[in-house]
Amino acid sequence: MSTRDAFREHLTRGDLEGALQLIEPHLPGVAGSATRVNNLSGARALLRWAQDEWRSILHPDTEFGEAYLQHLTSKHGAETSSIQNRLIHARNTYKALIASEIVTTNPFAGLKGPNHKAEEHRQGYTQDEIERLCQHASPEGKSLVLLGAHAGLTGPELRAVKWTDINFKEQTITVSDRIIPLSKELHAALSAYHTGLFSRSERLFELPTQLALREHLFTLCQRAQVWYGDKAIRALRAYAGERFYALHEDRELVARYLGVRSAKTHFTLRNYARRKALEAQSETHTHGV
To answer: Which stretches make up the Tyr recombinase domain (predicted)?
Structure first.
């Protein structure tokens, strides 16, 4: 049986995972990597949409690509980065289908998603998203999220942080020669995580590589239905910068907590100022109505 016939048989039975296994080797990224996982997720979403809409994957009509783009726009609204990512995944899915000799044309070739300005790109998580991540996380996961979102730790710092770096009595954490205060939520999360451990290793998290950290966060984002993007760790730190500034309104203090030069905090603080201005504008409009 040819790969094309096997693929068609899987689709006819509604076995999307079996169909995906046939084309997975031709998707971007190394097996098990975040890139491969993201593209598999996008391919799965495309196959499920086509199945629900009774559209042929093997024989896409001229409106196939535009119809999927309309579906993504309806689903994600103003989240243009999510639409663009799913379009890329769909395009890669058909590249994999072509490489597997299942189809010969790509209905997403040349199809462009919505335009967006660079300054509108998402940089930090919202408070609601942080809360949702924490709600769906284990004690370990909650500690990881809040160390990024409330203490502003970088990816390498999250992987390297040790229990001896944490002063529960003083409610501080010391990393890379900077002392950062623990929020009440972070202190409680670390205490619960620390108490619940049967055996304690030197480090808080068993994450030997940056890829392992990204995959841990990606899984949590999927569980909480929170945007992941390609820079989730930076998004946590961006939230931390906004949070520190909201508490202290001191650029130099924020820079010291984040371990960056003052000038490098400018973009984070600019995002914070823009968000607050938009919130104020929204409130004014609401009251005006």
So the answer is: 120-289
